Predict the 3D structure of the following.
Amino acid sequence: MATLLRRHTGSPGHGGSLQRLRASLVGVFLLLNICVPLRAQTVGPTFKGFYMEDTCTIKDQNIVIDFGQTNDASFTGIEGPTKPIAIAATCPAGWRATYSLNASADADNANAIKNSAANGATGFGILIRSKDLSTTIPPNRSNSSRLSLDDGLQATLIRTKSVGSEGNINATATLTVAYE
């Protein structure tokens, strides 16, 4: 830039103008360098969520169901004692749930939980059903029936073989409740 300004062909006495022109051009050059914008990237944030007016609270709990001491007199057909499964849930009235049961299935009745007691009784399993006993919750399969959370579930000790042997009955399962 300074080289271009040296060849001034104007009249004498305009030397001050040349100096002012140089100072102005240097100022514009500096101003242009300062005002050049940095590279920018546009970012589009995504916002997600879900609003629910009401919700359920289901307490994570260990539930122990004790069938007590039973014998042949406790059975009608293949069904023995039935006990409620008390799930501590606080939900708005009318909410429905689907249940899934993770447990070892009995080899003779895939709808029942296997008795896993060491040296335990043979020929027995545990059936999980809706409170009205109309819907079975089989182990390791999703139940597509939507049941009322108000109704609850029942556990029934059943015979899985026509002849069984005496001993302890013990089984463990994880019950998952999906509600809406």
Remarks:
- The beta strands are 57-58, 79-85, 89-90, 96-102, 112-114, 124-130, 147-148, 153-159, 174-179.
